[in-house]
Amino acid sequence: MHLTPEEEELLSSDNETVAKCMEILVAIGEIYGADRLIPVKSAQISGVSYDNIGDAGLEWLEGLNARVRVPAYVNPAGIDVKRWEEMGIDSEFYSKQMRVLKALQRIGAELSLTCTPYYLHTPSFGDHLAWAESSAVCYANSVIGARTNRESGITAIASAIIGKTPCYGLHLKENRAPTIYVKVRNPNFNPSLLGYVLGDKIPGEVPLINLPRTVTKDELKQMGAAMAAKGNTALFHVEGVTPESGDFERPKEKMEIDLTEFDSEKCVPDLIALGCPHLSSEELREILSISSRFYPRKVRKEVWLFTSRKVYEENHEVVRKLERMGFKVFCDTCMVVSPSTSKYECVMVNSGKALTYLPKLRGVRVIFGSIKECIGRAFSDD
Ligand code: F3S
Description:
This protein is α/β, with parallel strands linked by helices. Helices cover 38% and strands 15% of the residues.
């Protein structure tokens, strides 16, 4: 891989963190056949929940001795930093989690604590990024047309500190071409479920999807998150909708899909959790509008909503009304990365990503429903 004189200098820097970060980027570049490093506009760091990284990860972060050169956003942590006690988090976990956040803040990362950094700072079409959170990667590539590989927490930090990433994979236009054409038959499809099924059926592909109805950006977010979780998808195109869908020839390989049935678990939810990925302002308003039909009733079970602190703060009035109906709106964390969900037995979600990860990571049973079904269930006794 060709390195500029400045990059060579960083590689042999006296600052061990800088030299190590360069080493990591060069090693990754060589493994994947990159010919050079390219500048990135931002990085997004995953592996933030203390529950995921443990003491080894915490020590590694605390040992970093350099500042980021480009904006670096941070994925959700294991707690709502203000309302952690209400989530049933103990003080030992809280203090370890806060040490993780302090270490990230010390290197100059922005404690956005969200998997939807694009609601805070939207990248532009064609921007090169080094993002790690799989759903954010899928959204940035597919819906925005920015370019990022699916980084690990460590390579995202290395890129943030150096300001560059190896040029391979989805940074190159030729690797962004669709590999399979998918025609969706059923106009009543649920986007999250579609993503879940596609991720399962065609893992690792770049699908060009023909949808039988228009979709919102939030629906594309849901679909991409599920595909990324289930099938490692980092890029999809939707014909006539996403920005690069018309740039390539239609692939020869084709499949049709008719989502009419889905075999969900059968259990009575003791928690309903929405906001995977984190809720947008529009989704918060949609939840309020659906819930208002049940007025003046209050929810009959625990219902947790997850969003970023910024979206929470921008929607104070909506949040206040939802909380009056009994919803709990948490920030900085989510039902998957927080250990708080493990105490429940059966969790109802509207997210194909949460459906994939909750049983594995939290040991809970999970049932799936649309946003309307989840809210209907929240106001009922079963
Ligand atoms: Fe975000 Fe947590 Fe889902 S990080 S995509 S809400 S698993």
